[in-house]
Amino acid sequence: MNFQDIFKKSFLEGFTSMDISAGRVMAALTVTCALALYIFLVYRVMTRKSFYSKSFNVALAAISVITAAIILAMQSNLVISLGMVGALSIIRFRTAVKDPMDLVFLFWSISVGIICGAGLYEVALLTSLVVTVLILVLENLPASRAPMMLVVNLSSPDAEKELLEQVKEYSRICKIKSRNISKGKMDLVMEVRTRKEADMAGAVSALSGVEAVALISHDGEVTF
Asked: Which residue stretches of 17-175 are H helix?
């Protein structure tokens, strides 16, 4: 038997079916369902979006089970694995994931399905615990205080100097973001950092030439 015959025999043996017992399938799907339910509960508790997407959360749990079933099927036969690779390669997901945390949970769900399908249940459990602790720790780390936007309507541009002097008494940072002048009046938008929002708003509104004051906070990205 030459090298070509040995290679052909080993290649053909790869196409033979590998017996996967019903007990292993049940064990893999049971552990996957338990971890999928865990991911479902963690996402439900930890999400802080204004509108909770239950359909996305249900999809997370279902993806784990489906992925585990695909991995089990791919292990049974090489022909099936090649067919699934070809079938899955034509799938295109056009739904954009807007929240990065949703992307984290999506990869977490897929990873649990792959690991459980491979029979590494301890790895899947330990990974889920580590990811949960990591998310909890990083979510609760104190972040820098987000700047606030001060919007002031002035009856005259001449009042800007006095306004800036007053604002600097309450804010260590004062950056003018927008200056709009129309018919002798001025609208100023400034970025400020202060812990005395009410005092600063009252002091600014008491200045001569100030017609209206608005102090707006936001929950967006924080600049350092």
From this structure: 22-46, 54-76, 78-89, 100-117, 121-139, 160-168
3-class DSSP state of 212: strand
How do residues 15-59 score in pLDDT, each as one tens digit? 455 567 778 888 888 999 999 999 999 998 887 655 677 888 898
Residues 205 and 98 grouped into a single domain: no
Domain residues for the domain of 187 are 148-216
Does residue 56 lie within any of the structural domains?
yes
Consecutive H or E run containing 179: strand 174-182
Residues 88 and 140 sit within 8 Å (Cβ to Cβ): no
Q: What is the CATH number of the domain that holds 185?
A: 3.30.70.260
> How far is Cα of residue 206 from the mean position of the Cα atoms in its chain?
43
Determine contact, residues 150/192, Cβ cutoff 8 Å.
Answer: yes
Q: Residue 121 and residue 35: Cα distance in Å, rounded?
A: 10
Burial code of 132-141, b = ≥16 C-beta within 10 A, e = fewer? eeebeeeeee
Domain boundary among the residues 73, 106, 139 is at 139
How far is 203 from 190, CA to CA, in rounded Å?
16
**Degrees (nearest 5) of the Cα angle 147, 153, 157?**
110
| Same domain? 127 vs 45 | yes
Same domain, 18 and 79: yes
- Stretch 130-139: mean pLDDT, rounded? 88
Output the pLDDT for position 2.
62
Alpha carbon distance 129, 122 (integer Å): 11
Residue 221 domain-assigned? no
